[in-house]
What does this fold into?
Amino acid sequence: MVTIAKEPDVVSARGGLHIEPRHHFGEQVKVDVLIVPGGDVTRELEDARVIQWIAETSTQAQLTASVCTGAFLLAAVGLLNGRRVTTHWEDVDDLRQQFPLVRVEAGERFIDEGPIATSAGISAGIDLCLHLVGRLAGEDLARRTARQMDYPWK
It folds into this structure.
């Protein structure tokens, strides 16, 4: 797993958490699974460089997923058009309004549409990631990972 940011600088996340990305957009990094996080994505939606990077990177990834409002970024790229998706319950109506070609479903923890997967909020993102571990590396590893996390995953 690697973290990739727009610039080679420390990223300040919500609540003051600082993350030092391993790579940045200017580098060529092989990405097998692209997971786009959510949060307040307003600035990123308006940043053509972010949208372009997601568009280009998603073409090389075997799987692209979003957690929470990261779905807005995937929708902006056009990756969600015609697909069943979900996002955080507070943002379902906004996603439907802003991206009418996307089939937004409320009440789902996550939705796996083959090469694209989306989840609702943060804990639903954990469910999605455990599902993806099971899909890519086997159910046994997914169960053992959930157990190690002491996470009640079904």
